[in-house]
Design goal:
Elements lengths: L5 H15 L1 H19 L3 H14 L4 H21 L3 H14 L4 H13 L3 H14 L4 H14 L3 H7 L1 H16 L4 E5 L5 H8 L4 E5 L3 H13 L6 E4 L18 E4 L11 H11 L19 E3 L2 E10 L1 H7 L5 E2 L2 E2 L6 E2 L16 E3 L9 E2 L4 E7 L3 H6 L6 E6 L4 E2 L2 E9 L5 E3 L10 E5 L7 E2 L4 E7 L6 E9 L2 E4 L6 H10 L2 H19 L2 E2 L2 H7 L2 H25 L6 H4 L9 E5 L7 H6 L4 E5 L4 H13 L7 E3 L20 E5 L13 H10 L1 E8 L2 E6 L2 E2 L1 H7 L13 H4 L6 E5 L7 E2 L4 E7 L9 E7 L4 E15 L2 E4 L9 E12 L4 E9 L2 E8 L8
Parallel strand pairs: 1-2, 1-4, 2-3, 4-5, 9-22, 23-24, 23-26, 24-25, 26-27
Antiparallel strand pairs: 6-11, 6-12, 6-15, 7-8, 10-17, 13-19, 14-18, 15-16, 15-17, 19-20, 20-21, 28-32, 28-34, 29-31, 30-36, 33-37, 34-35, 34-36, 37-38
Helix pairs in contact: 2-3, 3-4, 4-5, 5-6, 6-7, 7-8, 10-11
This protein binds ligand 44T.
Amino acid sequence: MPNATARPKHGRRARRRRREDPARNELVSSSLESAQQCLFKQDYGTAFVHYLLALNLAPVFKDFARESFRFTLFKWAEELDSVGRIQELFDSYEQALELFPADEVILNSMGEHLFRMGFRDEAAGHFHKALKLRPDYPEARENFYRVANWLVERWHFLMLNDHGRNRKYQQAIQKAVQSGCNTVLDIGTGTGILGMCAKKAGAAEVYACELSKTMYELACEVVAANGMDGSIKLLHMKSLEMEVPRDIPHRVSLVVTETVDAGLFGEGIIESLIHAWHHLLLPPQRGENEFKDPSATGRVIPAGATVFGMAVECMEIRRHHRLCVSEVGSLSMAAAGELRSPVSCSSEPDDSMEPYTTERLSRLPGGFKALTEPFTALNIDFNNVQELEGLSSREVQQIRLPVIQEGELDALAVWFQLHLDEESSLSTGPREDTCWEQAVYPVHSTRGFGLKPHDELVVEVSCRDAYLRLCSVAVIRDGHEIRLDKHLDLQLLKSISNANPEAELCSALACLQTDQNQTKDLCMLECSEMALLNHQDYHQGFCSAMAKLIFQLRSKCEKRSGGNSDLGECVNSTDCGDLLYVLDVSEGFSLLSLIAASQGHVKAYSSVEKNKQQDVLRRLAHSNNIPEQRLEFWLNHMEDEQGMLQRPSREKLWSAIILDCVETCGLIRQKLMEKASLARCLLEEGGHIFPERIVVHGMLVESDMLLLESAVQGQEPTLGFNIAPFINQFTVPVHVFLDFSTLECRRLSESVELFVLDLMNTNANYTNREVKVQATSAGRVTAIPFWYHIFLYQEISVSTLSQRSHWKQAAVVLQQPLQVRAGDWVRLAVKLYKSTISIAAHIDEAPGPME
Ligand code: 44T
């Protein structure tokens, strides 16, 4: 046994000796001095090493040197980042945190680097720590809110608030345990809830695995808070990596899991269960095991699932997946090639494509129209490993569906019933009163296909890789098959020539021709980018705004160059013949530069980066008679993004800079105001920033739905367990990607102007503002949805609330609902920090007029 009292003494002696060592003191002071000199010479790497040495030797100087040390670290990290020396970057942060383990600024900054490198879990851990150290640290708060959605997805709140689902799972588990399944594994435990149900039901042994680090840590907290830390073994791993006896001592008699997404298989349940049957579960209760003791056989909850599908017409889905307009702004799109979303369920599975998106059909703006009755697409028994294994080699199944209503085929919608056991099931159907989303398999054919009653739709169901795939392949009309998949093959040609109408054959051949071109000219855009292209008001507004600016700049120029000549002549004069320079720094795909160029007298710079997308712009320029040299790709000339807003040439300033100011999710883009200030410095006289102004509007609402999606509600424990306080740490006060038009809510006020952001004059912006709004009816204010009126130029504006916009809305969810009576005045304290809006609401006891 080491002598417990001897060590501290030794330590004290060592420390005393250290303090008195003159050589050491000398080294410390010379290192500090060198550090400062290097800092002055901007040699941050050397400065950093000097600081490390000095502060490790003499921790007493830590407080004194903290600021300069941080500065040095951040500069050094920036440098390492820019040259891609990532390992060294993180090593430097580690060293810094060894010296200053509780420094929230260093933690937050390291989190930002981790986030940029794609280590979201780790990044969030750092932001969380920084915030715990200093709860009022706005940078860490903003960062934490930004990643919280990734870490603990919002559906956790919905699921925990879904009492029906909780109870059904609990009852099924209780029944199984009581019937003798006494060793249990919870795959994908999340907060630990199903594992705790098994323990509470009396299971002798409970194991639970979770692959997300954050969720695993959360589960540990929850399980401990419920006094079960000794009795549930939590593992931070994917079930596929688990082995007996390394991770669990022996095979279990029950696996419980809810690792299913809206498309059923997206979380890998098939693979997990095949692995579990081979490695983690006792043999199934079948054949010779039919009457064996349940503790000696294995089973799974849920026992199986039935998947349903239905063809739908839905404008909201259509405009997110294919081009629905022939003109965008002033541009004809005829030569664009095929533009579509990457969500595709082609018969050859391709990893880069997701086969479906998810939507809550009942909440789609504009609704949807069912074109067929719901049909059963698949039945699967989770207790039959042969069936699970056979799924990927199952023949592609063809189903013929009678069309019941006329309409355009936009998508196949999919949902399922999860059979927990023989008696109980959960449904994720669009008409159920649950929070589940449905899977949406969009149809891409460029020309929409109109279905009619008496048609039959042919759908193929397959499961060749991990995903369930549904594809509408053909329509049978009047006995003829019309293929919907665009790759026409010989078989189709044959079928047409059998029917023998010559014209049809010719058009099929023509189609074949264009299809080949289209494959070559295929360009995939994000769903939000597709919706943007289809957003006509935005492009039209922009077109008019640009025309006005150009007219104004050129009139000014005409006046300067001597008066009475008209604009036509002006082009020939040296002065006014000069081009106007327009820069579009929109994120992602944007046609705005081209729209500017199409106005004439403009040289436009686009920030589109991807080659395929640049090709689309070039094709469109060509087909819209825009000379090639009038469109440049800005980033092609740039070494790094920092030079982003540099002027086009030394003598020339920008006539217009287009900023992309609102993200699809409904939030103001980060660093928008910084970009606007920078942009203003680079404008020629009379030059303009698009948009010039953004007005933020909001409204008081009572919406229980928003509460259910934000935090576990109510004082009651969840199934008797204490879970809410732990998961609610991940509550974020701003809800994004909201569809205000279909949000179930009561409106408690008119809309009110919350804020004005003037991009042409940032100094005029306030960061705090008090706004008064009168309640129009009584209720509980639970949230304040907000949106923007984006003023492009003078009165030309677009609203992010408009139905056909590509934007969603956001909402501030109040920490405490506020009870109001009709006529009450509510005082809103609106704050804008960087690009994050926060709002606090109080009843105004001394009502007065609006400020
Ligand atoms: N989505 C439902 C539920 N995991 C998705 O890390 C909710 C959809 C939904 N852990 C609207 C509403 C709702 N081994 O924490 C996750 C995940 C983990 C695993 C260990 C594995 N093999 C896995 C696989 C997943 O399990 C947890 C749950 S999975 C996702 C559930 C009403 N739209």
